[in-house]
Amino acid sequence: MQIANFLQDLAIIMIVAGIVTIIFHQLKQPVVLGYILSGVIIGRHTPPFAFLQDENTVKTLAELGVIFLMFSLGLEFSIRKLLRVSAAALISATAEIILMIIVGYSLGKFFGWKPMDSLFLGAMLAISSTTIIVKALNELGKKNENFAQMIFGILIVEDILAIAILAILSSFALSGSFDMTDFIVTIGKLFVFFIASLVIGIFFVPKLLSYVDRFKSKEMLLIVVLALCFGFSFLVIKLGYSIALGAFLIGAIMAESQEIKVIEKLVEPLTNMFSAIFFVSIGLLVDPKIIHLYLIPITIITIALVIGKVFICSFGVFISGQNARTSMRVGMGLAQIGEFSFIIASLGISLNVMSPYLYPIIVAVSAITTFLTPYLIKSADPFTLFLARIIPSSISQIFNTYTKWIKNLISQDEPAPIKEAIKKSLFQIFINLILVIAIFIVSSYVSHNMNFHKILFNDIKIDNAIIWGISLVISLPFLIASYRKLKALSLIIAELGIKKGKDNTKLHPAIAKIVLFASILGIILMIILLSVSILPPFGLLILVLGIVIIITAMLWPWFIKLHSKMQIGFINTFKKKDKR
């Protein structure tokens, strides 16, 4: 009887999904939406009755869908592709994820949702959909264009960062609090595991697959591939990481083998089947009543998602040196969410830390943005021309000059002494910032483990303000040294990026100030993130900052001398060691 119920559920899923996806294909809409709609149709929330006998069986099959979905993404990813990722993709993806998490969290707080719901909302809005974007670009015939290659680079970086997000969310959800020390330890462990898995896996797995392929048996190759996929995923779960991480990693390792094309063809039918069940399972959780009830949040989140991603991604690509047209096409191509958002939502549900209403909300947002994606890509050029007409010519000239400056800077063939000076300055800035990071990590640890609130004022807010202020003062020699190095470096960068000429001499100080301002802003953001667990309330924060500014103004020369003495002492220590 149990097998009969299972077959009945599987038959209903496939029949309804097949009919709906045929209709969606005829309407030229993404089949992913068809799968989700199929789940809504046969789900228990849709009258007149529930079609399925046992939804738990479907959930188990959906977990297999997650494995195959992430495994297939890993097969498309390769270390070679990562090495070819441009600075524009790295900057855009990082900025997009950080800022969209902030946007999502802020929206959640605006709606009055719990902090954990707000955090998961931000994470779900951060990652664009590889599947939907690739399908849309294929259908529009734009897959080989320059902006599409830029989008693929951003998606590769996003996939890697998304794995980190899954690991961090799991740790955060279980502990219930955010600590910078725990965050860095989690990232460090993940990074070590990621690199070790890739190095060891790339050494052994391609050789094993080559050996199996000698027998010219596709059946044997498929069984070995599945054994590696499920075995490694099981190992990753036992180590405390998500199943998605294991499937993605083993896929990325196999992507380096010579048999990758054969493996993709062998696995594709299984991926299509189980990923379809995964998306159907998402539809099963959708309650149309909840969507109607949360129509306003869905609308606001959708608008914020589209505007936020278009602006953030376009800006990230633009500041890396691409022109306005390419930047806008990239931004509009990334303005949606999809499979990774559902995986993050599934994580929140499985850990019982996310409210049930958030799942259908994110599915609705995904459906709307998926529908909009082809139209946004098509409208990128007309919208860019519209902006060009309404933006004042003086501002357009600044944008064009900036783009030329970045291209000149990248292609500049600097003399060896200048290159050496830049490298030396960057290294010194890096060392100073590492010391600042260490100071705030130690401060966070001391605040949470040494019970200072029992020693000082017995008020955790005041104690945090004191600890944070002391940390900032101790960091001043290194921050001031970094500022001075950045100031000199920004002048060199401005000089290298602008070709000499009467009209360009006025641009040097302006660009130098922009570079310096952006660098300082990045350092401020870094300090805020490092000290988020000990950051005092706004009133106390302003008071502490005022005191630190006064100390900085009064003791600026002394801090410079102190840092110089420390630097000289450090160099002399190495010289003495060399003489021995």
Give an account of the 3D structure.
- It is built from 23 helices and no strands.
- It is mostly helical and 580 residues long.
- It is globular.
- Helices cover 82% and strands 0% of the residues.
- Helix 14 crosses helix 17 and helix 19 packs across helix 21.
- The mean pLDDT is 79.
Short description:
With 580 residues, this protein is mostly helical. 82% of the residues lie in helices and 0% in strands.
Which features does this protein show?
23 helices, 580 residues, mainly alpha
Oligomer: single chain
**What general outline do the C-alpha atoms trace?**
globular
Q: How is the biggest beta sheet arranged?
A: none
Tally of DSSP β-strands: 0
State Rg. Answer: 27 Å
Strand content: under 5%
Helix and strand run: HHHHHHHHHHHHHHHHHHHHHHH
Rounded mean pLDDT score: 79
Supply the number of helical segments.
23
Low-pLDDT runs:
none
Secondary structure class reads mainly alpha
* Through-space gap between termini: 82 Å
- Helical content band: over 70%
Secondary structure: elements and pairs:
Blueprint: H1 2-26, H2 31-42, H3 55-76, H4 79-84, H5 87-110, H6 115-126, H7 130-140, H8 146-175, H9 180-213, H10 218-238, H11 243-254, H12 260-284, H13 288-293, H14 295-319, H15 324-333, H16 339-350, H17 358-378, H18 380-390, H19 393-411, H20 416-449, H21 460-497, H22 507-530, H23 538-579
